[in-house]
Design brief:
single chain; 624 residues; Jelly Rolls; Immunoglobulin-like; TIM Barrel; 4 domains; eight-stranded parallel barrel; six-stranded antiparallel β-sheet; 16% helix; hydrolase; Ig-like_fold; Glycoside hydrolase family 2 sugar binding; glycosidase
């Protein structure tokens, strides 16, 4: 997140109340103490919540003040004393309002927050996210910035990496309290102690008194140090500073290019890459470290926009972010509203080097309503539902056209049958068995390039109470026991589908969810962060270098395939144990490739097979 200009925190005590949305300035009879920023659970499910705080005049002589609210969910109106300051309708974009004309010696700030009035609440307006995580409010930050004659309101940068060129396209928005005819200074230098060239340059800026003006400037970077996902390289970053007299603003960014096409697959900084990811339903910064613990190098922000702190954690850890527009579920949406939000979303987050991809519409149709097995009639039912699925891609593609070059666009994420740009794939859960993934993708090869979600759900506790968003009917179709059986089934599905996708060479694969938000869910972590059984299975299947059986069946023979996602060649020693017998083979495999190393016979009575790579301390065990 861009560093703010000198700021004064004045509002330490807040109170809140339920109010009716819209109408005149709210004036509730009673108020309750709350923490701001935050999501006070006492107001879960409210139609609107008003927040009130008082503060002294923060300005000194010749100073001005701007209120900055971040994460205002989702639509808001703001008053200072009895003066209406303005409204806001995009929680991922900071709200900045001048306070000067309404300031008094003692001041009352009132912010009314309400849920969205359109389709763009995303996951927060579904039963997948508990009401206490979707409380209308000020979620991320509140501040007052003070300044004198001129103020840099905002600084953004778009990283650009071409064949032999690297640069930042920078934009600075300046508010001129008095007439301005000066020069704005831009500087850039490597972050922290990293070596590299810095630069400084100045450009003219003019504005009339009371005017806002935006300056655009291109900063060329010689001998660039690129930002890489954590399993491909270092997370080199740069600090950009804009300075006008004594007022300045900084942001931290990085140089990274991401491309995806049918012929070359996914490439980061022109290097082939397999993106191994997990989905986030209501992301928090700690989820990035949890994803890295799973050997993931990508997270998908599923139908919501995380805070800048989540993006900052991803940049530091070397994790790519696939960002959804907050739009999910069947039904039409306002195309112009979608275009507007997409442009504002990109502008707010494009300086993050890990911002890799964006989607518009998630799960626009429902193909499987309730569980379907793998029998003949169930397969016919699934084919019929897919045949009848109908979705018009044009609105999502029109919105996606707002995304600039350099960010991969996947307009539609959905199930087979609607020709999605990224597939929601649920064999072993919504339909069939996990092993049916091969047959499904062989018949529909266009579906396996980018898989946006897959997996199965499980219980997190023995007697779940809060199971909103969890399809208990589907779960009970597959599992008749308690937590142990439930988590064992989830483990089996996730391990099988992950491995089959890697064997197929899928470019991007995203396991459905990292963390449950209730007592049960699609996550590999329970609500309290405790690992479920599927956690270690997914971490093992996501190992950058892993040995896998092409056909893990008792009473047959199977090739052993070693998959190497690293950008370097790998030499190692493969060992295996099956039916009390052991064997070994040398491994030599090129960067970002797969290779059949050997073939082994599997006895009819074999119960387990273990493959191990000594040099990478990796093992893979199959229960037969």
């Amino acid at each position: 997140m861009p560093a703010a200009a000198p700021a004064t925190r004045m509002m330490n005590e807040w109170r809140a109340a339920r109010v009716e949305p819209g109408g005149d300035r709210p004036d509730p009879a009673t108020w309750e103490p709350v923490e701001v920023p935050g999501r006070p659970a006492a107001f879960a499910g409210a139609d609107a919540v008003a927040y009130r705080s008082t503060f002294a005049d923060p300005t000194a002589e010749d100073e001005h003040a701007t209120l900055v609210l971040e994460g205002v969910y989702a639509h808001a109106r703001v008053w200072l004393n009895d003066t209406f300051l303005g409204e806001h309708d995009a929680y991922f974009e900071p709200l900045r309002l001048r306070l000067d004309a309404a300031l008094a010696a003692e001041n009352e700030l009132l912010v009314e927050c309400r849920p969205p009035e359109d389709r763009f609440g995303g996951s927060y307006e579904t039963d997948e996210v508990p009401d206490e995580l979707a409380v209308p409010g000020i979620w991320w930050d509140v501040d007052v910035e003070t300044y004198t004659d001129h103020h840099i309101l905002d600084l953004s940068a778009r990283p650009r990496v071409d064949d032999e060129d690297a640069r930042f396209d920078v934009r600075a928005t300046v508010l001129a309290e008095t007439a301005l005819d000066d020069r704005l200074t831009f500087s850039v230098k490597p972050e922290g102690s990293r070596r590299g060239r810095g630069m400084m340059d100045r450009t003219a800026i003019e504005a009339d008194a009371g005017e806002r003006t935006t300056v655009e400037y291109t900063i060329d970077i010689r001998d660039p140090a690129l930002w890489w996902p954590h399993d491909l390289g270092e997370q080199n970053r740069y600090v950009i500073r804009a300075k006008l007299d004594d007022d300045e603003r900084t942001l931290t960014t990085g140089l990274c290019s991401v491309d995806d096409d049918e012929s070359d697959g996914l490439r980061v900084n022109d290097t082939p890459m397999t993106a191994r990811g997990v989905g986030l339903l209501a992301a928090e910064p700690e989820d990035i470290e949890r994803a890295v613990d799973l050997n993931a190098n990508l997270v998908r922000a599923h139908a919501h926009v995380p805070s800048p702190a989540v993006y900052e954690a991803a940049d530091e850890a070397g994790v790519l972010v696939w960002q959804d527009l907050p739009l999910t579920g069947p039904g039409p949406f306002d195309i112009e509203r979608g275009r507007d939000l997409t442009g504002r979303l990109v502008s707010a987050y494009e300086h993050h080097p890990g911002f890799a991809a964006i989607s518009v519409h998630d799960d626009p149709v429902t193909v499987s309503d309730g569980p379907l097995g793998s029998g003949f009639l169930d397969r016919l039912r699934l084919r019929w539902r897919r045949f009848r699925a109908d979705y018009d891609h044009e609105p999502a593609e029109t919105v996606a056209a707002e995304v600039p070059d350099g960010i991969v666009t996947l307009p539609v994420v959905g199930p087979p049958g609607i020709e999605p740009d990224a597939t929601s794939l649920y064999p072993g859960w919504r339909y069939g068995q996990a092993v049916d993934v091969d047959q499904l993708l062989e018949r529909n090869p266009s579906l396996d390039s980018v898989v946006g979600e897959y997996g199965a759900g499980s219980l997190g506790v023995e007697d779940p109470v809060d199971v909103d968003g969890f399809d208990r009917e589907v779960h009970d179709y597959h599992v008749s026991g308690g937590v142990e059986d439930s988590q064992a089934y989830q483990r089996s599905v996730i391990a099988t589908v992950t491995e089959r996708l890697r064997l197929r060479g899928t470019d991007v694969l995203v396991a459905g969810s990292l963390r449950d938000l209730g007592d049960a869910g699609m996550g590999v972590l329970a609500r309290d962060g405790t690992p479920k059984d599927a956690h270690d299975a997914l971490a093992s299947a996501f190992e950058p270098v892993q040995a896998m059986l092409a056909d893990p069946r008792a009473g047959g023979e199977s090739d052993v395939v070693v998959h190497n996602d690293l950008p370097t060649d790998v030499t190692d020693r493969l060992t295996w144990e099956v039916g009390g017998e052991t064997g070994e083979a040398d491994v030599a495999i090129g960067a970002a490739s797969s290779e059949t190393v050997t073939s082994i016979s599997i006895p009819q009575d074999a119960e387990t097979i273990t493959l191990s790579l000594a040099g990478h301390s990796v093992s893979n065990t199959y229960q037969l």
